[in-house]
């Protein structure tokens, strides 16, 4: 059976109402990235950073998965082979749609992380400076989010998965953020068929063998239908 690895980015959650730091308006527009999405920003003003992620956590909890998330969940359910989603998104919309095989390479809003001992636990709705770790007791709780300047999670596993992928698809990613922007080259070198699905061509579109452009809620279900037919499902 073919192994399908899918990278998803902000573009798949945009139609569920979750903005990105590139959008005009919304939560990100009122803050500078270096203030709310870097370890240095957190060290300078933890209260501001916690407030920012508390607001994003509420927003993400209210969002609902859309037809694109649901199509990927259907792919995992109806296809007999392996389907892995590697997501840059920190919302839980893939899981809410029913996907089970999901790696959050940039962390997740619903998680808290102890900066002292690396213990992870479900984030309370409201986090504040001095949040105590339930295991080591250090007042070092922070959002379980990979900030700019930090190493994304699961990288060794992701490179392994890309090297053994038969199909690699990137959905709703800008192609501007590394290392994710280089995944297509690794998958291509390993012999995978590569597909970009995006609202507009990404910065690395020329690296893909197959491309589809349009709203994720239209092009992702179409692609999943075609793929399942081709695989004889
Ligand atoms: Zn701890």
UniProtKB/TrEMBL annotation:
CDD domains: SIRT5_Af1_CobB
Co-factor requirement: Zn(2+)
Keyword NAD recorded: yes
Keywords: Cytoplasm, Metal-binding, NAD, Transferase, Zinc
Cofactor note: Binds 1 zinc ion per subunit.
Domains as described in the record: 2 residues (Tyr-53 and Arg-56) present in a large hydrophobic pocket are probably involved in substrate specificity. They are important for desuccinylation activity, but dispensable for deacetylation activity.
Descriptive protein name: NAD-dependent protein deacylase
